[in-house]
Write a structure and sequence with these properties.
This protein has about 400 residues and is α/β, with parallel strands linked by helices. The longest helix has about 40 residues. It has an eight-stranded mixed beta barrel, surrounded by four helices. Strands 10, 11, 12, 13, 14, 15 and 16 form a seven-stranded antiparallel β-sheet that branches. It is built from 13 helices and 16 strands. α9 packs across α10. The protein has two domains: about 230 residues, EAL domain (TIM Barrel); about 150 residues, PAS domain (Beta-Lactamase, 2-Layer Sandwich), CATH 3.30.450.20. The chain is elongated, with a radius of gyration of 27 Å.
């Protein structure tokens, strides 16, 4: 196909709007502008056009400008207090920075509230100087616009680069989740993005939500905004902000009930572990042979744990590991002397156990040795010694606690 045949007729290019919903209000909080082409065969997405490396950038920029203009004109008459999300190619923004800034200023003079404008850029497609891009985004923010980084979880984004751009919103793409449970590594990526968002003061927007499982996952992972076909498809007109409020409220109510059930089971399981280990410690005196003591109590925790060890108050392991292998507890002496103070929350948890004199159940995490999803229950033994029991995922599931929500 010749390039001329791939260039859309601008008279046939129209903006479509996909609603973005808010977790706190259960209403539409904004609309993302998506390019569509009206043809005799129906309305088609302009995505392939914008992503075609064979199309000259000037044609893409011209089409993008046409879409922006049409969207701005629509929002000039919009009465609802909602935001307009427009996609900007970061490379195009660098090329046309002055022109884009002037266009925004002209629309502001016509009454467009730029505080309702969210500019979406895809960081991992940018091939210029990230510092220059950050400077332009800061200028846009001085006009009142917000910045969103798009397609996180889909491309090879660099968290350091994202920090330089100081976005207001991080958009996490859920297309890779589909209908399956998320993998351990996927959990880790989402956790890292949620932590980054909190550190830089940004909100999480989950896009690509196609079913209730993905909606629940997004809500549980601290999403504030949600977007996808599960809620609404792109339309030529702005859908009413309250159109899904009843459905949204019902779904959130269901999520809260599930969350409450999980948390209840979690607390009950932790309390039962505390009671059991306290009983064991009271009945089995701890002598100088700590490895022997662990082997002695092993049969009494075989139904919950597969690995145990003891550390001192600085995180140095003062015993071997004892590990369940083929129904028998065995020693791993090479682990003695290892230091675990580098682990997240390790020192904090030791202090908590000392002050509260009770054990702590960790979050789910992937075990370094096995790669399996586990939790660790840590318990104070007195005399600055702490017992750690690693618990497999199967036991946690049996107790009614679903790892997808923790």
């Amino acid at each position: 196909m010749k390039i001329e045949q791939a260039i859309p007729n601008l008279k046939q290019v129209v903006p479509y709007f996909q609603a973005i919903f808010s977790a706190d209000s259960h209403r539409v909080t904004g609309y993302e502008v998506l390019g569509r082409l009206q043809t005799d065969q129906g309305v088609q997405s302009l995505g392939p056009f914008f992503h075609d490396p064979g199309i000259p950038e000037r044609f893409k920029m011209e089409t993008d400008l046409h879409l922006q203009t049409a969207a701005f004109e629509t929002f000039l008459t919009a009465r609802e207090d909602v935001s307009l999300y427009i996609n900007m190619n970061a490379n195009h923004l660098i090329m046309d920075k002055d022109g884009f800034l002037q266009r925004l200023i002209r629309y502001r003079s016509r009454g467009l509230d730029l505080s309702r404008l969210v500019i979406e850029i895809t960081e991992h497609d940018f091939n210029g100087d990230i510092v220059d891009l950050g400077a332009i985004l800061k200028r846009l923010k001085t006009l009142g616009a917000k910045i969103a980084i798009d397609d996180l979880g889909k491309g090879a984004s660099n968290l350091d680069r994202i920090g330089i751009l100081e976005p207001d919103i991080l958009k996490v793409d859920l297309h890779s989740l589909k209908n399956d449970e998320p993998t351990h590594s996927y959990h880790g990526v989402i956790y890292s993005l949620a932590l980054l968002a909190r550190k830089i003061g940004a909100e999480l927007l989950f896009e690509g939500i196609e079913n209730k499982l993905q909606f629940h996952y997004s809500w549980r992972k601290n999403g504030r905004y949600f977007q996808g076909y599960f809620f609404s498809r792109p339309t030529a007109e702005l859908i009413p902000p309250d159109s899904l409020k009843h459905q949204f409220r019902q779904d959130i109510h269901h999520f809260i009930q599930l969350e409450q059930s999980n948390v209840k089971h979690l607390f009950e399981f932790s309390a039962a572990l505390n009671e059991r280990l306290q009983t064991i410690v009271n009945k089995a005196a701890i002598g100088s042979d700590l490895d022997g003591w662990l082997l002695g109590i092993g049969p009494r925790v075989s139904d919950i744990g597969f690995r145990m060890y003891i550390t001192d108050c600085e995180g140095f392991q003062i015993t071997s590991n004892i590990v369940m292998e083929n129904g028998v507890w065995r020693l791993q002496e090479e682990m003695k002397g290892k230091n675990w103070s580098w682990r997240p929350y390790f020192i904090e948890n030791l202090i908590r156990m000392t002050l509260e004199n009770r054990g702590i159940l960790s979050d789910f995490y992937s075990d370094i040795a096995t790669g399996e999803l586990i939790r660790t229950f840590s318990f104070p033994l007195g005399e600055s010694r702490f017992l750690f029991v690693d618990i497999p995922n199967a036991v946690i599931r049996f107790k009614g606690i679903n790892e997808a929500f923790f």
